[in-house]
From TrEMBL:
GO terms for molecular function: nucleic acid binding. PANTHER family: MARINER MOS1 TRANSPOSASE-LIKE PROTEIN. InterPro entries: RNaseH_sf, Transposase-MT_Hybrid, Transposase_1. Gene3D superfamilies: Ribonuclease H-like superfamily/Ribonuclease H. This is Mariner Mos1 transposase. Pfam families: Transposase_1 (PF01359). It comes from the Eukaryota.
Amino acid sequence: MGTTWPRVNIHNKTEYSWKKFMVCIWWDQLGVVYYELLNPSKTITGILHRSQLMRLRQALKEKRLRYYSRHDKISLLHDNSCPHAAVPVKKYLKILDWEVLPHPPYSSDIAPSDYHLFRSMAHALSEQRFTSCEGTKNWVDSWIASKDKEFFRLGIRALPER
């Protein structure tokens, strides 16, 4: 007497692989100065972050000329503790003579990118689905363009309260 196994219908399961892109963004009370989308495979290292700061410096010269023409001090608040602590980044920031504001590690309630910018972006992203990096970049560009100066000003002005 043999064992009989019930017949089971086998269906191919469609696998969805959602890629996540990291947005590295630098902004001030006037708006976004510079941003990059990083592929999921990228890790932010000290070398990469220094390269980003070099591109940020160029973007500041193009978009915020008054910082350089009036010799205004540039203050930088990192929202994480790892990349900006790397030796290449520290050396480059010293060369630039930018003021790096102290930031307690793991304090997302203090980082304006977390409590203001990314919260708003996440809300707008809730119904979005992208199929390419280019589509994601286009959406980020249009989201940034949809925000007025007051949006960014409010995010920076709320910082002392936190």
